[in-house]
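P.,

For your records, the input lines for the assembly:
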Amino acid sequence: MHYESELREPLILGDKGYHEITEDVCRPIEGKANKYWWAAFTLACMALLWWIISVSYTLGTGLGVWGLNKTVGWAWDITNFVWWVGIGHAGTLISAILLLFRQKWRLSINRSAEAMTIFAVICAASFIVSHMGRPWVAYWPLPLPNQFGSLWVNFNSPLVWDVFAISTYFSVSLVFWYTGLIPDFAVVRDRAKTKGAKFWYTILSFGWTGTAKNWQRFEEVSLVLAGLSTPLVLSVHSVVSMDFATSLVPGWHTTIFPPYFVAGAIFSGFAMVQTLLIITRKVLNLENYITIYHIDMMNRIILITGSIVGVAYITEFFIAWYSGVEYEQYAFINRATGPYWWAYWSMMTCNVITPQLFWSAKLRTSLFATFFISIFVNIGMWFERFVIIVTSLHRDYVPSSWTMYSPTWVEVGIFIGSLGLFFVPFLLFTRFFPVIAMSELKTIVKSSSSQAKKKGAHHHEH
Amino acid sequence: MSTKIAYGIFDDDDVVMHAIPKLQEKKFKLVDFISPNTINGLDHAMFLKRTRISKEAFMYGITGTSLALLMMWYMNIWDWPMDIGGKPSFALYKNLPAFIPVTFESTVLCAAHGMVITFYLRSKLLPGVEPHVIDVRATDDRFVMAIEVKTDADKDAAHSAMKALGAMYVK
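Structure tokens returned:
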């Protein structure tokens, strides 16, 4: 039996045993949705509808309905793609990297963070497809035999690496998430009171009963998947960054990009986890499981990764000066003082200054402060991608090609709409799926819950 | 010869972990154990063999590595070498640095999916499989011990042994 010091913060508050955990996690699935859920769901559906309209208009008419031009060929599309992929990274970090480091506080948040990953990557992929303009030829980046002579895809190109990276990341995250869900679906199945629920959760739980051999395999599979997902998640944003870094555009052609993008991805992902969980824990009454301690731990990661991102911004500037390359220097001076200075300084304020507030323990443990700072980080990280993409492109080598870029209502619609594409499945997830990995959380009830700690203290007195 | 199973339902994993060696001492054949979560040390107590699934994952992984390299060699080196920006594709080893990302992703893809599919098939986990539920709370907060017995007398003996060791009820 594993004992833990009473001095460590308990990870489960309240007097919770195995059965109470089951009850608390199953309650949202078995009960009816409240009016806040319906309000959020209606809003998300409206956003999704706007997304459908904007995407259909784009695909039906052509990319000319966007604000792109000959100089700025990538703008909101790839900004949103990178933003969503980055958000996804926190889910994998929590479920895989924190598992390898045996951080038990991951257990109450891994399920919803992984759900966030899955839906965020779907949103990211939707931007890849829509920015192609002709999604019916979206299979062209795949290495398929074709009728254009013996022409194959170019495996030296980071755009092809990206196809492999994103599809591997999505599908592996999906099976990792689903495998963890199987024992929890079995819990819901065995408690189901209606015929319909019994039927659906029997299908979803794949016939799981929880025999010793299956649990043994389950643990090994989870561990190996965590081991595989760890380098995978780091590779995904590295490859995304190489889409830029292997080009010859000043402001993109830098070797710092892979670690800088990965840190930024984790930074923005954790901010999104905070935004989502601060609301979810309240609406679903999960305050005893997603505690202030969990919020504090995530804020520390935001502080660390935010600082890495800040150092990366400054390093980029230094290297531009130190390289002695005129074009590189111009790209950076233009970012900070050119016509898009407001985007650059929004990014600097939101990403470099606001997370530094988390040095204060008082702010780190305040829900209100955390929620607002997480929104700031989400905005700042969106601006980071906009700054990297648009300010690097809009001043081309030849001054006659210099342009400005502004989005049309269609691009704004696709972006706002993609929030609907994210929140519709996420809200359905909170209603139909166990939002906390209860069978995994039960493994720490006897060591890390406040109930166990009370018993431990009692034990020492005698 | 038909065999029967005597089940004992417990409500505390510590009691179960205490009961397992005692039952083994009395030569009862523990065939299975159903629990709502993993229990540390259970596989050792039950003398379960270590699963080979991680080794299988490794095999799937190197299959992925080989397939990716073979594919890229065939497409970009052998079938249609392209000279892009004065950087020709004439030999696998020369292009290897550019081929690493796809090789890596393919390794992870095959290792992860191969392992998970093997896990599902080997553990008979598929959509539509009817679960064999002994106690509906065995996925919630109860623990089921299964002992293989040959006769009804053996079954009664197993039942009373489990009761003596703290089972809530037997069946």
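Two observations worth noting. The longest strand of chain B covers residues 4-10. The two ends of chain B are 21 Å apart (CA to CA).

Regards
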